[in-house]
Amino acid sequence: MAWAGKILRVDLTAGTVKSEPLNKEWARNYLGSRGLGSKYLVEEVDAKVDPLSAANKIIWATGPLTGTMASTGGRYTVITKSPLTGTIACSNSGGYWGAEFKMAGWDMVIFEGKSAKPVYLYVNDDVAELRDASHLWGKSVWETEETLKKSLQDPLTRVSSIGKAGENGVLYAAVVNDLHRAAGRSGVGTVMGSKNLKAIAVRGTKGVGNILNPKAFMKATAEKKKILAENGVTGQGLPAYGTQVLMNVINEVGGLPTRNHRDNQFEGAKDISAEAMATPRATDGKKQLVTNQACFGCTIACGRISKMDQGHFTVANKPQYWGASGGLEYEAAWALGAANGVNDLETLQYATMLCNEEGIDPISFGATVGAVMELYDMGVLTKEQIGIEAKFGSAQALAYLVEETIYSRGFGKEIGQGSKRLTAKYGHPELSMSSKGQEFPAYDGRAIQGIGLAYATSNRGGCHLRGYTIASEVLGIPVKTDPLEHEGKPELVKAFQDATAAFDSSGLCIFTTFAWGLADLAPQMQAAIGEEYTTEELEKIGERIWNMEREFNNRAGFTAKDDSLPPRLLKEACKTGPATGKVNMLADMMPKYYAARGWDKEGHPTAATRKRLSL
Fold first, then answer.
1. What's the confidence (pLDDT) of residue 323?
2. Strand 175-177, strand 158-161: pairing
3. Which one of 83, 172, 521, 595 has the largest count of C-beta atoms within 10 Å of its C-beta?
């Protein structure tokens, strides 16, 4: 019933690869991908484990709808304990790798132990074996993918791998597939590197043929694709402009964090926006944006393919595909741009290509550079320490520091530790714009109250993708709520968090939720795996997943005190725009959020909550 029914277990220490049956009871209760992979992790790994030790495990997991004809059915997740935060880490990626792995006949692969030398896992349908990767170590993600496809003599092979950032221990290194799709946050690539695991190369030819009711599934998916096509966001905005359509929108509502959250609007936003990407350059008359691109089975196609102005930076020594590759997404454009006061679009494109090529999270990187620039502005850090004048707005400093960080050179080694560790080392921990050690993305929690609460309570640290209340607070989806109002936001945040957990676990992309709710997911799940997956049951499963993740973090040592925001968001009011004078009202929202969750005052699920959710 949509699940392949088996998983791979790889013991890197022993060098063995074994097949075992999927735990069907867990699959019924946690679906797949984020939920099911996290269930395996919390059952098999001590929450207090050192994330970079051999005792930690790392899991690639697909969902029951991954590889099917459901729109956006190409997603997979990477689950482990995060070296950046110490929380549970679950990072989602699109592209084609997830579908390929599912079509090879597998739901999941679990890696345990540590290899004595660099290796990669080769999967070709039922064949799965570890192979030497010494020749790949030190290569970029792009070089690794190209090398493997040539050596395996199959251009349809899909590769999930790390670049130098993961090898060098950058704490927010990403796992990248299909050149520029990434499980980007929380340092999942760092754990991969710590195990001497370079890549997973997959070829699957079996397809996904075990849908419970194929005719009903075809009917349901066709109806839901029509809804996506007719929606203003999924049918128009995202295909035309990608996530970058948000740059000017968020700036106008006064919610664009600028210069390490000193400001909440960026005067250079229009220069690094989607509209700017689609405007011919003065230098050569060509647009940076070449086209959009879709992941496997996606009818939205929000991805960007961009071409740099090659005169802006020297790219003569880069592979030929450096000329046109993954373009700027909103979060990366913000982190590399507004967070540092940089409005040079070509510099941002250069930096994001480096992040893609070497596997690094641009959000954590850019936000950490923002903290560095503020420390430089204060005189705490000097040009001699950093290696360059790191003034807010310096495109040169941004380009220099992305290279230093990826290659672990000079001050880049410290930037690679993330803003929490860096700011604490230099005596100003309050300048880390993070929660639980993970840097915030591109929304100011003072101007948009619900997202501030979502940051503070996210199980993987500061994150928008665990409860994207921007949909409601800014875009009016499914209902419009006032971003400046904090009343009602605890319940809104909980609802978004639970629904997102269900969508993540299905194997579909959460961008569908701009047009769909759980009532749209339910008939697709019912046709694929069983009638019991009603809207109410999916909501309960999402809530179960959220509480399971929370309990892992509690066992890891996290408490209610860690559900916090930096002093800047709580005490320093927004200076401009509609949010002028606003701070985040976290203290008022948190007790109501705990009550809505069914947690005690210490942030632990109560016995009644655990019983209701069958935890």
1. 55
2. antiparallel
3. 172
Contact call for residues 131 and 120 (beta carbons, < 8 A) = yes
d(CA 240, CA 233): 10
Nearest to 514 by CA among 72, 36, 136, 161: 72
- What would the two tokens of residue 14 be? 């022993």
CA distance 145 to 419: 31
**Distance of alpha carbon 192 from alpha carbon 89, whole angstroms:** 13
- Set out the domains of the chain in order of their start, with CATH numbers: 6-203 (3.60.9.10), 258-432 (1.10.569.10), 449-612 (1.10.599.10)
What was the pLDDT predicted at 318? 52
Token readout for 585 is 């009202």
Q: For 549, list phi and psi in degrees, rounded to 5.
A: -60, -40
Give 32-57 pLDDT, tens digit per residue: 999 999 999 999 999 999 999 999 99
3-state secondary structure 472-484: HHCCCCCCCCCCC
Question: Which residues of the chain carry a pLDDT beneath 50?
Answer: 314-317, 319-321
**CA neighbor of 120 nearest in space, from 151, 77, 83:** 151
β-sheet bridge partners, residue 115: none
273/123 Cα distance (integer angstroms): 40
Tell me the C-alpha distance between 592 and 587, whole Å: 10
Element (H, E) at 601: none
* Tokens linked to 334: 């913000």
Q: So what's the pLDDT on residue 281?
A: 86
Alpha carbon distance 101, 109 (integer Å): 9
331: which 2 tokens?
């979060």
CA distance 461 to 365: 15
Strands of the sheet with 303-307, listed across from one edge: 289-293, 303-307, 324-326
Predicted pLDDT at 322 = 52
Which is it for the CA torsion 408, 412, 414, 415, positive or negative? negative
Residue count of the chain: 615
Measure the CA–CA gap between 276 and 289, rounded to whole angstroms.
9
HSE (side-chain half, CA atoms, 13 Å) at 69: 16
